[in-house]
Amino acid sequence: MPIVVEKLNYAYMQGSAITKAALTDISLRIEDGEFLGLIGHTGSGKSTFVQQLNGLLQPNSGTVHVDEFDMADKKQRMEGRKLVGMVFQYPEYQLFEESVEKDVAFGVKNMGIGEEEALERAHEAMALVGLAPEKFAAKSPFELSGGEKRRAALAGIIAMKPKYLVLDEPMAGLDPLGRKAILDTIDNLRASLGCAVLMVSHSMDDMADRAERIAVMNGGRLVMEGKTRDVFAQSELLTSIGLDVPQASRLGMELRKRGIDIPENIYEIEEMELALLKLLSKGGRA
Amino acid sequence: MCVIRTGKEGETGLIEIQNVSYAYEDAAAKALNNVSLTINDGEFVAVVGHNGSGKSTLAKHLNALLLPTEGKVLVDGMDTADETDTLSIRQRVGMVFQNPDNQLVTTIVEEDVAFGPENIGVPGNEIRTRVDRALAAVGMEKYAHSAPNMLSGGQKQRIAIAGMLAMQPKVLVLDEATAMLDPKGRRDIIDLVTKLHKENGITVVMITQYMEEAIGADRVAVMSGGELILEGTPKEVFSQDELLHKHRLDVPVMQQLANRLNARGANLPKCILSVEEMAQAICLSLSKN
C-alpha cells in the first residue's frame, strides 16, 4: 500500500490574523518501493509538505493516508508514523549519545523494543550504511568525520525499519565523493530493505541520476509530477520558475537556442554524449 | 607534486604563505603539510579540495585565526604570528564562514554591519557612511532595519559580507560560504563576490568544494591531504582530470563531457568548463564541417 495524499491544504497560524497558505490542494501518491524526488526552491513548501507525511503537521483539509492509516486520527497516526522514517537536514547535529551504537539504537528503543534487539538492529543498520559495527559501535559519535556522522544519523532511522524513507537534503554540505557515498547508501537500502524513498534535493544532477519520478513544488502547489525524463523535458518551464535543471538538460537548452536539434527529453550526460557524437559525425559526412 | 606557477618569482604578494605546516592538538596527522601559496593584490583565487583536505585550515591561517606550527604567513608584510599585528591583519582580511546562522550577532541588520567598525573605534558619522555603502554593495539597503533572523540563508551571508566590507578589507576570504545555501542563494553570492572583485578590485580567496564555483577564478589551488597538489588557471587545473580523480575530486561536468567526446573522435577544444562554452564549441565544430 502506498502513501496517498489527497487535496491537502495547510496554512501556518490558521485562524489568526497572520495566517499564510503554505500548501494548496496537493494530491500525490508515493508508491511502494519507488524513488520519488521532490524539487522546488526555498520557500516552495517542500519541508512543510514532508512534515505532513509522518503527522508532525496535520492538514487543515484533505487527507494523508500512510498505508491503511489515516494520519488525522491520533491512534492511527502513531501506527502510520512507525512506517515513515524521516531524515532532516544536517541530521548529524542531532547525535548526542556516548557511543554510535547507542545513538543508532535510540529510536528503536523508543518504539518499545528491548535493549538486546535494539542493539542487534542498530548493528544491522550500521552495516547497511557502511559503518562496520566492529569498528564504529563503541566510538563516540563526535569522533566521526562529517560524512560518517551523517551515515550514523541515517542508520538511526534505518534501524526502525521504515517502509518509507523521507530524506530532506541528505547530501547538503558534502563533497562530491561524500554525496555519491550517501546516494549509493540510499540505493543499497532500497535494494536490501525494499523501502520507498522520497528525497528532497536541490541537486538536479543527483536527481537525474537516481530518481524514478519527480514532483515539483512552487508557491505551495504541486506544479508538475511525472517520470524523471518527462519532468526534465520541461527544462524551459523549470528554469522559468527559478529551478535548476541537470547540466545535460541545460546544454540541450543552450544548443536549441542556437538552432541545433537536440531532443528535449535528454537529461543524462551519457545520453547527451551519444546524441552529440551522432550529430558531430553526421555533420562530418555532409 | 605538479605545480603550474603563474606568479612571478621574487614578486611579493598581498598574502604570502611560506612553507606552512599545521597540526591540530592531539591529531596524529598534520592538517597542513608544507604549503606555500602567494595571493596577489586584486586576484580572485579559488581553493578547492574534498572534505578534510585542509582547505578550511588554510583559510583560517589567512587572518591569524590559526597560527602555523611551522613556516609563516605574511599579510601585507606582517607576520600573523606577531600578536601586535593581529588586529591590523584582521582589518585587512575579512572572513565569511559556512553557517549563515552563526555569524550575525545583533538583532538589527545595520547594527550587525556596524559591529566591526564600532569595535575598532571608527567615528560615528563614518560608521554611518560605511554601513550604507556596504549594504548598498551587497544589494541589501532595503533590509537595513530588518531582523537578521527573518532573512534567508543567502541574505544572511550577504549581510555577513557587508559586515566585512564595512571594515574596508583588502581581502575577502569565503570559507565555504555557499555550502549551506540553495542554488539561487549560491548563485547570488558568487555573482556578488565576482562583482565586488571586478568593480571594487577587492582580492578574493574562495574556499569551495564545488568545482563549478571555481571556474570563474583567476587561479585555482587544489588541496589534498593537507598539501597543495596543483595550482594554475582554471583551464590548466581542470585539464588535469586524472590527477584530480586520484585525489577524489571531480572535474566540472562539461569538461568530463568534452574529454569523452574528444576521446571518441570529436574535435572540441581541450578545455571546456561551462555549459555556454560547450554549446559554443559544438556550434563551431558543426559549422566547420
Features of this protein?
heterodimer, A: 286 residues, alpha/beta, 4-stranded antiparallel sheet, 12 helices, 42% helix, globular, B: 289 residues, 6-stranded mixed sheet
Can you give a write-up of this model?
The complex is a heterodimer of chains A (286) and B (289). Chain A has 286 residues and is α/β, with parallel strands linked by helices. Helix content of chain A is 42%, strand content 21%. Chain A has a six-stranded mixed sheet. In chain A, strands 2-1-4-5 form a four-stranded antiparallel sheet, with helices on one face. In chain A, a hairpin with a 2-residue loop joins strand 9 (213-218) and strand 10 (221-227). In chain A, helix 3 crosses helix 4, helix 3 (100-110) packs parallel to helix 6 (146-158) and helix 4 packs across helix 6 (146-158). Chain A is globular, with a radius of gyration of 21 Å. Chain B is of the alpha/beta class and 289 residues long. In chain B, 38% of the residues lie in helices and 19% in strands. In chain B, 48% of the residues are buried. The A-B interface holds A 41-43, 145-147, 172-178, 202, 205, 242-244, 247, 250-251, 254-255, 257-258, 260, 269, 272-273, 276-277, 279-281, 283-284, 286 and B 50-52, 98, 152-153, 179-180, 182-185, 209, 211, 248-250, 253-254, 256-257, 260-261, 264-267, 275-276, 278-279, 282-283, 285-286, 289.
- Rg of chain B, nearest Å: 20 Å
Q: Specify the number of helices of chain B.
A: 11
Question: Could you describe the largest sheet of chain A, including whether it forms a barrel?
Answer: 6 strands, mixed
The low-confidence parts of chain A are none
Number of DSSP helical runs of chain A: 12
- How much of the sequence lies in strands of chain B comes to 15-25%
Unreliable segments of chain B (pLDDT under 50, ≥5 consecutive)? 1-10
Global shape of chain A:
globular
What's the rounded overall pLDDT mean of chain B? 90
**What's the total number of strands of chain B?**
10
**Strand arrangement in the largest pleated sheet of chain A:** 6-7-8-3-9-10
Estimate the strand proportion of chain A.
Answer: 15-25%
**Average pLDDT for all residues of chain A:** 91
Largest sheet of chain B: 6 strands, mixed
Helix-strand makeup class of chain B:
alpha/beta
- What is the H-and-E element order of chain A? EEEHEEHEHHHHEHEHEEHHHH
- End-to-end CA span of chain B: 40 Å
